[in-house]
Design a protein that fits this description.
The chain has 344 residues and is an alpha/beta fold. It has helices at 9-18, 22-27, 60-65, 73-78, 81-94, 126-138, 151-157, 172-189, 209-224, 241-259, 279-296, 325-342, and strands at residues 29-33, 66-72, 97-102, 105-106, 123-124, 143-149, 194-200, 228-234, 263-270, 303-307.
């Protein structure tokens, strides 16, 4: 068992960042989130996505190590029930838990002035949450995790994109209020579901972001009666050095909040770059991002999320290929195994 004496928040943060011991390696939990969509979702879809859910699909080693399979809410909302049935049945056989990444800011009608809504990432409705829950339940499955799709970013900081409404730039309490109806749907259907948050590293460049983050997490603890289970860090590496600096700043702040009990678990999303023109280039970029955090900066996230929402890599299988998403997952698993051997 791994034990750390609690001296100060700063000391804990220092030791957790700089201590790459066997305890941290063993604690890493692998999440897997391939591209999946059906119209009218704008997301990409791996060409062999449904091939993952066959008993002899060529990802046997990596499937044994994947703890959580993350599905997009935008997929589940529109997916045929027979696809959901097949997915749930296979994941149950493999003893892999289901997470759903979905918007949770409830906007059932147009705001005045116009902002947010289901056309803006992070926003949703209770009807959408109900539809997602019903499909999983009808398939005989359980949603174990809800990964909120960047509500702090899109609800408080996001200014908008060409052709789309702006974010609503809400106060923290207003934002929490708007997420509660959607979260209540999931909690009513799956009382044991763990609620976590995905946020982009750009949060760490917003004025007052540290105070906002503390208020955000404290508010959820009061409203849910428990801490947010995890925060997953989404790093837009294509934005350059500024995004990388923000990611390091954000991660260290999360370590301090974890030391105080404000959150339970920290994760990092590992992916490639949108501009990568081949599957191999995308996977190579993702590997360099893993190395950046875990080799150069000696970070040990408790959750490692192997994920894509872009067109690459076009295939998830087989795990023995160097340019597939399961191949990237297996690369990460081999890294963990090698680190464990070195640190014995």
């Amino acid at each position: 068992m791994c034990k750390y004496r609690l001296f100060t928040v700063a000391a804990v943060a220092f030791f957790l960042v700089n201590l790459g011991g066997n305890c941290a390696v063993r604690a890493t939990e692998l999440w897997f989130a391939p591209q999946a969509s059906v119209p009218p979702s704008p997301l990409s879809r791996a060409e062999d996505f449904m091939d993952l859910f066959v008993s002899d699909a060529p990802w046997q080693r990596s499937a044994q190590k994947v703890s959580v399979f993350q599905l997009y809410g935008a997929y589940l909302e529109h997916a045929p029930q027979d696809q959901v049935d097949k997915i749930v049945k296979d994941l149950k056989k493999r003893h892999i838990a289901i997470a759903v990444e979905a918007g949770v800011i409830n906007m059932p009608s147009a705001a005045k002035p116009s902002c947010g809504g289901v056309g803006v990432e992070g926003y949703a409705t209770t009807a959408r949450a109900t539809a997602i829950s019903e499909k999983i339940k009808k398939a005989g499955g359980v949603i174990s995790y809800i990964a909120m799709d960047e509500p702090l970013w899109f609800g408080r900081y996001y200014k908008g994109a060409p052709g789309k409404p702006p974010g609503c730039r809400l106060a923290i309490e207003e934002l929490i209020d708007l997420t509660m109806p959607v979260l209540k749907v999931y909690l009513d259907e799956f009382p044991s579901v763990q609620i976590g948050d995905i946020e982009p590293s750009g949060v760490a460049y917003q004025p007052g972001w540290q105070d906002d983050l503390v208020q955000w997490l404290a508010g959820y603890r009061v409203r849910l009666g428990r801490s947010v289970s995890f925060v997953h860090l989404d790093v837009p590496f294509s934005a350059g050095n500024q995004a990388v600096v923000a990611a390091l700043r954000f991660y260290n702040q999360l370590l301090e909040l974890k030391a105080t009990g404000s959150i339970s678990t920290i994760g990092i999303i590992y992916n490639g770059l949108p501009r990568d023109v081949t599957d191999q280039a995308w996977v190579d970029s993702a590997k360099s991002h893993i190395s950046f955090f875990e080799d150069k900066h000696n970070m040990r996230p408790s959750h490692a999320i192997i994920q894509s929402w872009t067109k690459s890599p076009t295939r998830t299988l087989p795990e023995t290929a160097s340019d597939t998403l399961t191949g990237l997952a297996l690369h990460y698993i081999d890294r963990l195994n090698q680190a464990s051997i070195r640190e014995r």
